[in-house]
């Protein structure tokens, strides 16, 4: 009987020590990087921008001439969206209306560069796909999503 109690006690101790081990998938246990509420470092932001440029260029199959016309339009749209967020943040309806108008202008500005409605719509979809991939990757790295 003493041996049984001894083995059970050792089993409970081993089990509790295994549970107490740090989880390598948890964000708090990882190395350097932005924590919740912190800003991204400039080099991280640059990496994401480079990945975005590659992702969009590859998926849109932009030629060099199209890329020369596309990226200035894209950057102007991005600045317009940032400005809308800054100025209209307190009124949700005004912000959504301004965002919709900015997207309509973006679509109209892209048409001469990409030549067809299908490619313009594809550009809008690819940008949304990129944002989805980024959110998914952040969730995966923080351990919020099961693989």
Shape: elongated
The string of secondary-structure elements, in order, is: HHHHH
Uncertain segments are 27-31
User: Which sheet architecture does the biggest sheet show?
Assistant: none
End-to-end C-alpha gap: 45 Å
Strand segment tally: 0
General description of the model:
The protein is mainly α and 147 residues long. It has a domain at 53-147. 76% of the residues lie in helices and 0% in strands. Helix 2 (42-60) runs antiparallel to helix 5 and helix 3 runs antiparallel to helix 4. The longest helix has 26 residues, at 117-142. The model is unreliable at 27-31 (pLDDT under 50).
Q: Descriptors for this entry?
A:
147 residues; single chain; mainly alpha; elongated; 0% strand; 5 helices
């Amino acid at each position: 009987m003493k041996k049984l109690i001894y083995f059970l006690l050792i089993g409970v101790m081993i089990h509790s020590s295994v549970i107490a081990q740090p989880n390598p998938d948890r964000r708090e246990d990882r190395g350097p990087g932005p924590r919740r509420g912190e800003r991204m470092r400039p080099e991280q932001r640059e990496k994401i921008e480079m990945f975005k440029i590659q992702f969009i260029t590859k998926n849109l199959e932009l030629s060099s001439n199209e890329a020369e016309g596309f990226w200035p339009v894209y950057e102007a749209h991005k600045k317009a969206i940032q400005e809308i967020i800054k100025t209209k943040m307190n009124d949700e309806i005004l912000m959504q209306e301004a965002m919709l108008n900015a997207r309509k202008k973006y679509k109209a500005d892209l048409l001469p560069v990409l030549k067809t409605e299908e490619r313009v719509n594809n550009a809008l979809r690819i940008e949304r796909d990129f944002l989805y991939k980024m959110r998914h990757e952040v969730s995966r790295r923080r351990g919020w999503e099961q693989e």
